[in-house]
C-alpha cells in the first residue's frame, strides 16, 4: 500500500478561503479602530483647547466677551464663547464651544462654567 503524504489541493483551497475570510473580517475591525482613535485624539485636542481658553478667561488674559476666541493651544479648533447673565450678582454663565472636523464630519465639544466678574 502506498502511504499518502501532504495535503490535497481541495484541503489547501479550503484553508486559504478560511484564512482570507478571517483577514477580511479583522481588517474591517482594524480600520474602524483607526478611525475611532483619530476621533478620540481630535476630541482630546478640543478638550485641551477648551480648558486652556477657560483658564485664560479666568485669569483675565483673554477678554470676557461673546464671540470667537483664538485657540490658545494651536490645535486647529474653532472656539466660541457665549455669556449669559445670571440672577446672582457678579456671576456670569459661560459656555465655551469647540468645533472641529475629522473624517469628513463636524463635531462639537462644550465646557459650561460660572465665572465671577466683579
Mean pLDDT: 91
Query: Can you summarize the main beta sheet?
Result: 4 strands, antiparallel
> Helicity range of the residues?
40-55%
* Terminal-residue CA separation: 101 Å
What would you call the structural class?
alpha+beta
Strand residue content: 25-35%
Structure annotation, total helices: 1
Backbone CA Rg: 27 Å
Q: Note the overall shape.
A: rod-shaped
Query: Low-confidence parts, pLDDT < 50 over ≥5 residues?
Result: none
Identify the strand order in the major beta sheet: 1-2-3-4
Total E-strand runs: 4
Give the SSE string. Answer: HEEEE
Short structural description:
With about 120 residues, the protein is of the alpha+beta class. The protein is built from one helix and four strands; from the N terminus they run H-E-E-E-E.
Please tell me about this protein's structure.
This protein is of the alpha+beta class and 118 residues long. It is 43% helix and 30% strand. The chain has one helix at 9-59, and strands at residues 67-69, 78-85, 91-102, 105-116. The relative contact order is 0.14.
For this entry, give a set of tags.
1 helix, single chain, 4-stranded antiparallel β-sheet, 118 residues, alpha+beta
